[in-house]
Design a protein that fits this description.
The complex is a heterodimer of chains A (278) and B (264). Chain A is of the alpha/beta class. Chain A has helices at 21-30, 63-70, 92-96, 115-125, 130-143, 159-171, 189-206, 217-223, 241-249, 261-276, and strands at residues 2-17, 33-48, 52-56, 78-83, 99-103, 177-181, 209-213, 226-231, 234-240. With 264 residues, chain B is mainly alpha-helical. Chain B has helices at 2-23, 27-54, 63-83, 90-95, 100-103, 109-114, 121-135, 140-166, 175-189, 198-207, 210-222, 226-251. The chains are: A alpha/beta (278), B mainly alpha (264).
């Protein structure tokens, strides 16, 4: 059964263009010019329930825009989105009960509150009773080893502790699909490994579908069994991790050492850049 | 339906509670902000005392009516900024793409956004409004009318700020215009409407909604008029619906951003 289905998804942003200097500023007032940027261009894919998918691409490829359309943050210009049978553009609230989101670059916790108070707040947001929230906090506290800092204000936590709390906040309502947008950004290797293990555990124990975007090859390699690479708003590769590595094994002959996943991804990015003339 | 409303209110109240808790981290700043706002408001009223020593009537208002006008303005503006402070900085949230975290929550986006911040000095405004009401002499009927009009005033001020803030979905750099319009509204609210003639009178009744927020209510509290009462409540409902429509129309144009941010 599909957890996510996107059909011919497109999104264009209109950006004002200004020539350099004061003259350019004045000209922009008198003759405003607008440039259209195609962030996502006819993207179609589906994700099975319980699957762990890496959705990657270089900066500005359209990854975050796609995630934002899947979660109901942005409205697509055209195409269809279906997440767990719900259309995010029509039933955003209903969908929000079934999904969790972690944006590594955007914090959703209240920094002056303790993680415990934050989790209570998120429990209320997802309509959990006090008893349900307490039970869930106890369960996740143990799983994510939050005991030592659950009553320390978030602003006093380390980045790794904060990300763990962000994950717990997004899991308080047992989401069926978890969208992770660069969840390990800025973390040290040990904490990264720790977070990856926790994400893996969630998928294993609760059959949670994981939709991951990351620039960290370690995240992709250790978590995902399937990879979608996007560039300039289009899908350039959709393959299983196993198949992707197998296909690139032939290239080992021309390289002095075996290709790592990072090499393979870099190869694909470079080929795409040459093709699009960037 | 009722359960959904109850749950939404629970989240809004928690949000306001947590905002106030944040401000109370430093109790000295918290208390001094409130007290100094009250003192600041009180100093301006001294000017009116001096003016009324020179004349008995200014723009059709006596000192008591000016106090009611100031009281209602302070209470409405104060309550609006305590409960819905984010409505006054909506432009910034839209432009910097900070609505994302509210859009992935299964709650009303507009209410969640509006209640996500509070202005502590505004508690001083609200309390000052109540002090002025009692200074005018206690009257049960007037007390309840004052509370009701504080409610309608809060709705009108918040809705006006929301409409101006929502314009940022369509136009860039609208925050300055919005701030000026809200400041203009607050300035007009502190003068008797009798001094406005011609264009300025048209402005305060039909462009900047000062007439319905405070002038009509003060007239009703002085001499009850059922027609005016209906006009004020009807207008508050109308403006609230208009603000909701404008916000949600604009939300479809929201373009988010990839700026790094923290919820402070």
């Amino acid at each position: 059964m599909y957890a996510i289905k996107a059909e011919d998804l497109s999104k264009t942003f209109r950006v004002k263009v200004k020539e350099k200097g004061m003259k350019g500023s004045v000209r922009a007032i008198l003759h405003p010019q607008v440039k259209e940027i195609q962030a996502v261009d006819n993207v179609s894919f589906s994700v099975e329930e319980g699957e762990m998918l890496a959705f990657i691409g270089p900066n500005g490829a359209g990854k975050s825009t796609t995630i934002k359309m899947l979660t109901g943050i942005l409205y697509p210009d055209s195409g269809k989105v279906d997440v767990l049978g719900i259309d995010p553009t029509k039933n955003r609230k209903q969908l929000a009960y079934c999904i969790g989101t972690v944006f590594g670059q955007k914090e959703q916790l209240w920094t002056h509150l303790t993680p415990y108070d934050n989790f209570r707040f998120f429990g209320a947001i997802y309509d959990l009773t006090d008893k349900e929230t307490e039970m869930r906090i106890a369960e996740l506290k143990e799983c994510f080893e939050l005991g030592a800092f659950i009553n320390t204000p978030v602003r006093n936590l380390s980045l790794g502790q904060r990300i763990r709390c962000e994950l717990v906040a997004s899991l308080i309502h047992r989401p069926r699909v978890l969208f992770l947008d660069e969840p390990t950004i800025g973390l040290d290797p040990v904490v990264k490994e720790n977070i990856r293990e926790l994400i893996h555990q969630m998928n294993r124990d609760y059959h949670t579908t994981i939709f991951l975007t990351s620039h960290d090859v370690g995240d992709i390699e250790k978590l995902c069994r399937r990879i979608i690479i996007v560039n300039a708003g289009q899908i350039v590769l959709d393959d299983s991790m196993e198949h992707l590595k197998k296909c690139y094994l032939e290239k080992e002959n021309v390289h002095s050492s075996p290709l790592s996943l990072e090499d393979i991804i870099m190869d694909i990015y470079r080929a795409e850049r040459r093709a699009t003339g960037e | 339906m009722l359960t959904a409303v109850r749950r939404q209110l629970r989240v809004c109240m928690l949000s306001v509670k947590y905002n106030i808790m944040r401000e109370m981290i430093n109790p000295v700043t918290f208390v001094t902000n409130i007290i100094f706002m009250m003192l600041n408001n009180a100093t301006i009223l001294v000017q009116w005392f001096i003016l009324f020593r020179l004349r008995d009537d200014i723009g059709g208002y006596t000192m008591k009516e000016v106090m009611l006008l100031w009281g209602l303005t302070a209470a409405s503006f104060g309550l609006s900024r305590v409960l819905f402070a984010r409505a006054f900085s909506l432009s910034e949230l839209i432009v910097s793409g900070k609505l994302d975290s509210y859009l992935v929550q299964p709650k009303n986006v507009l209410l969640s956004v509006m209640t996500s911040a509070t202005n502590i000095s505004a508690i001083g405004d609200f309390l000052y409004g109540l002090v002025l009401l009692f200074a005018c002499g206690f009257n049960v009927g007037r007390f309840f009318l004052f509370l009701l009009f504080t409610g309608t005033g809060t709705v009108i001020i918040t809705a006006f700020a929301l409409i101006l803030g929502s314009l940022s979905f369509w136009f860039v750099r609208m925050e300055m215009f919005g701030n000026q319009m809200v400041s203009g509204m607050i300035s007009f609210m502190t003068y008797p409407d009798g001094i406005f003639r011609g264009v300025s009178r048209f402005l305060v009744y039909f462009v900047i909604p000062v007439g319905m927020a405070v002038y009509h209510p003060v007239h009703i509290m002085t001499e009850f008029d059922a027609g005016m009462f209906l006009e004020v409540t009807g207008y508050a409902v109308f403006l609230m619906i208009a603000a909701v429509i404008v916000f949600y129309r604009g939300l479809k144009r929201y373009s988010s951003s990839s700026l790094m941010e923290a919820r402070m």
